[in-house]
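Margin note from the TA: students keep mixing up input and output lines. Inputs are the sequences; the output is the structure of the whole complex. Example:
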Amino acid sequence: MQSNTAAFLMLTFWLAMAPALSAQTGEVNSCVSCHLEEGEELAVPVEGMRNDVHAQNGLSCADCHGGDPKAGLDGDMDAAMDPDKGYIGVPSRKDIPTFCARCHSNTAYMRKFNPRVASNQLERYKTSIHGKRLINGDEKVATCVDCHGVHGIRASNDALSLIYPTNVPSTCGRCHADAEYMADYDIPINQLTSYTKSVHGVALLDRGDLGAPACNDCHGNHGAAPPGAPSIAFICGQCHLNNSELFFKSPHRVAYEENDFPECETCHDYHDIQHPSDEMLGVGENSICIECHEEDSKGYATAIAMRNQIEFLKSKMSTADSLVALAERAGMEVSDALYQLNDADDALVKARTQIHSLDLDNIVNVTNEGVTLADAALLAGTNALSEVQFRRKGLAVSLVFLLILAVGLYLKIKEIDIKHPLR
Ligand code: HEC
Ligand code: HEC
Ligand code: HEC
Ligand code: HEC
Ligand code: HEC
Ligand code: HEC
Ligand code: HEC
Ligand code: HEC
Ligand code: HEC
């Protein structure tokens, strides 16, 4: 009974699938029909192909596995799965990259389907740690099907694909966060957990901000390797252009290269990147500068001076801010001062970026701009408040005046009452 229902469902499914799977030829496909009839494991690939990008492009079983989809309709599987007709069967794990690349490295072939699709995946893959280890017989590394799936491969812009940005971390994490799977290797397994807690992970996974990097934005789609120390600033610089340009012009660039310090990572970490704070700057408890710069060095002095500039601007802004807020609550028109404070805040943000230049003059210039704006806002706030005071004083004077007038009137009325008592 149950298997009858299953068979019925399969048949319905097949009727729905058949046109899609043999869209190009318009003919019945023996691979599909027999595998559905066989059911169970042999039918799984057919079901998987329902949403497969290859099926959507008119490709089917035989395009990947070879064989003759027109033969075997009579039940003769050997006629369909015939090596003489190009039947390859199931590729061994180490052969998967070349199996897929038969088409994907063939630019002319691929262009017929999609003029823009790249055809360098195998070439890039061979440069990755995955690719290099696979060639040397390590079958636990990622091959094409570990990242893309098989029988159900979706286009990269499909939100359900394994490599859609929000799905990439768990796709990589399936191996990299699995302690047992990675036990044979000498690398950490905390990438996924660190990344998930980082500014980038929170932005991408919690807020769906596709501008934040997933694993492949830093490691490449197919060339996965740990980026060497002197190329990290380029990776981060894809998105943080100002920071990397300032860093490149700073004395740290050469010094870091000579010492093999990993650029941005030295101060920000890499998977566990957090919102930076002003405390990282200077020589206080949480300063990163004092990790390398000793007292009496130029770096040490510059760290103090830069932090002082930032703190000075912040204190100016905070005083101006509270005065302007007071004036606003008293009902005064302070929009100009609010704009100035906003611009001062932009200057503060800029100053934090300029830190990467290590050039104190740059930072002084930017913070001075901010201080001028904060001072102007402070002045506007002070003026607005004295205006409030002035109006209050004016009100008090007029109240006293009105009171005197009222008393005078009262006395006058009394006087009239006495002179002309009511009869
Ligand atoms: C008449 C039935 C029938 C037809 C037609 C048929 N198959 Fe199969 N196929 C089977 C059966 C049964 C198996 C499992 C037994 C085996 O591997 O010999 C199988 C296994 C496979 C496997 C797995 C082989 C392995 O080594 O595990 C692949 C791949 C496959 N078929 C692809 C195809 C393709 C491609 C076509 C069409 C060109 C096709 N089949 C047509 C019945 C069929
Ligand atoms: C885009 C290429 C591609 C297409 C299209 C494709 N396959 Fe496969 N198939 C593979 C690869 C690669 C493997 C090996 C997967 C692995 O080792 O993890 C595989 C494995 C198999 C297996 C072995 C068991 C399994 O599920 O892994 C069978 C059976 C099979 N395919 C049948 C089919 C049938 C039937 C179709 C058509 C409905 C089909 N395949 C379409 C690439 C393809
Ligand atoms: C380590 C995971 C991983 C492996 C292994 C992998 N890919 Fe990819 N692949 C990706 C990611 C990530 C993308 C890009 C997604 C995006 O653009 O957002 C991608 C994109 C693609 C694309 C779309 C075009 C492009 O290049 O952007 C194709 C086609 C593709 N891969 C084929 C392959 C083939 C063929 C193999 C094996 C030789 C392979 N991939 C191996 C992760 C992988
Ligand atoms: C018979 C040729 C052929 C084989 C073999 C093949 N593909 Fe494809 N693949 C295509 C074509 C054609 C497209 C559609 C082009 C497009 O839309 O970009 C495609 C599309 C894709 C895409 C979506 C690309 C995008 O636009 O995002 C991925 C991912 C992909 N294939 C991965 C694989 C993997 C992994 C394998 C091996 C298991 C494989 N392909 C084997 C021909 C093939
Ligand atoms: C099928 C499991 C698997 C998947 C999925 C996978 N990897 Fe790997 N990866 C490995 C194994 C195994 C190694 C080899 C470990 C080593 O290098 O010591 C490796 C190595 C690496 C390395 C080199 C590490 C080093 O320092 O040697 C990087 C970087 C890497 N993977 C990134 C990624 C990224 C990014 C993704 C997702 C887009 C991914 N991997 C998906 C299994 C996987
Ligand atoms: C913001 C960029 C960035 C992102 C996002 C990122 N990585 Fe990395 N990853 C790096 C850098 C930089 C290194 C090199 C660290 C070093 O060697 O100094 C690295 C190293 C690695 C390594 C080598 C072992 C290790 O931990 O040092 C693996 C494996 C790895 N990353 C996997 C991943 C995976 C999986 C993800 C997603 C969950 C990911 N990475 C996300 C930048 C990034
Ligand atoms: C694909 C683009 C991209 C790449 C590559 C990238 N980032 Fe980011 N980064 C972002 C985005 C977007 C945000 C903002 C996240 C948010 O809104 O919280 C961000 C936030 C940050 C922050 C926090 C800024 C703040 O004001 O709190 C730091 C620090 C940072 N990234 C450093 C790095 C470093 C270091 C690298 C290289 C290892 C890197 N990023 C690579 C896009 C990127
Ligand atoms: C010498 C240590 C150091 C290095 C190297 C470094 N940073 Fe920073 N970075 C800082 C400090 C300190 C702050 C925080 C300043 C503050 O908040 O007062 C910061 C702040 C940031 C911010 C947030 C402020 C902003 O500009 O939006 C980003 C983003 C950032 N860094 C990215 C990078 C990138 C990308 C690199 C590599 C090109 C890099 N950093 C290299 C120390 C460093
Ligand atoms: C990982 C070590 C390291 C860290 C962390 C670090 N520096 Fe440096 N810095 C160096 C090295 C090495 C040099 C070049 C040798 C020297 O002048 O001390 C240098 C040079 C400088 C210079 C130029 C000095 C000169 O003589 O022209 C300044 C300024 C500077 N660093 C400021 C900072 C500030 C500010 C911080 C904290 C945000 C910081 N550094 C964090 C290692 C570091």
